[in-house]
From TrEMBL, chain B:
NCBIfam families: PRK02821.1. Belongs to the KhpA RNA-binding protein family. The lineage of its organism: Bacteria, Bacillati, Actinomycetota, Actinomycetes, Jiangellales. This is RNA-binding protein KhpA. Its main location: cytoplasm. GO terms for cellular component: cytoplasm. The gene is khpA. Transmembrane segments: none annotated.
């Protein structure tokens, strides 16, 4: 095929890409991730059901079951690594960056609830004192939960420090 | 099982999955999983600053019931 033809094809492909709805793209991300994880569970002889969802603009894939602690690890370390690999598996198929979120055994759901509780207390404290307050070191996922809660409360927040000791500072509006 | 799990994890992220193979070697100091990939995929499985290689190691260590496993990544031409 001539170069001109190839370029035309590429342009048409881009156009059809933008025509594909976000929902469809996220659904596809979830499917690819589910296949990748399902086979891993199979090989490792682990029992788990895979649940797919979309939260805002990202696909969420959860491995549900008990006896999955190994796949979570200390402070979710294994979960983060598995999420990283799963995103790479998605990128290999789609060619596009993935922000897919992986949860295992409800770890993120539980952490989210805990972090939200903490964020609420700190938001109240900053409101009444008018002084910035720093939280402890958190994972990117946990910091995102705090930033979202702070924004919703109408205050400001920033992340400071270096991984893995990065933390959120909540500031008055 | 570990070698099979690692092979699946690696094959899922590279451009040449058919070129992925994992060999288990018993060394004096413990087990070594040697991952061979297509030369073009070596950078990909290692990742920026070794980040992806670390992720493979973290997941495989979590699946290992008897502790430490070493993982080496080499390309298929590697000796």
């Amino acid at each position: 095929m001539s170069d001109a033809g190839t370029e035309l094809d590429a342009a048409q492909e881009r156009e059809s890409d933008t025509g594909v709805s976000l929902a469809k793209r996220l659904e596809r991300e979830g499917d690819i991730a589910a296949d990748y994880l399902e086979e891993l569970l199979d090989i490792a002889d682990l029992d788990g059901d895979i649940d797919m969802d979309v939260e805002g603009d990202r696909a969420v894939v959860s491995i549900i079951g008990s006896g999955l602690d190994a796949l979570v690890g200390e402070n979710g370390k294994v979960l983060e690594a598995l999420q990283e690999l799963t995103r790479l598996a998605v990128v290999r198929e789609t060619g596009e960056r993935s922000r897919l979120m992986l949860d295992v055994g409800g770890f993120r759901a539980n952490r989210r609830a805990e972090v939200l509780e903490l964020a609420k207390r700190v938001i109240e404290a900053v409101r009444s004192s008018g002084e910035p307050e720093s939280l402890g070191a958190m994972s990117p996922f946990e910091r995102k939960v705090v930033h979202d809660a702070v924004a919703e409360a109408g205050l400001r927040s920033e992340s400071e420090g270096e991984e893995p000791r990065r933390y959120v500072v909540v500031m008055p509006a | 099982m570990l070698a099979e799990a690692l092979e699946h994890l690696v094959a899922g992220v590279v451009d040449h999955p058919d070129d992925v193979s994992v060999r288990t070697r018993q060394l004096r100091r413990g087990r070594l999983l040697e991952v061979r990939v297509h030369p073009d995929d070596l950078g990909k499985v290692i990742g920026r600053g070794g980040r992806t290689a670390t992720s493979f190691r973290t997941v495989v260590a979590a699946l290992s019931s008897d502790g430490g496993v070493r993982i080496d990544f080499v390309d298929v031409d590697g000796r």
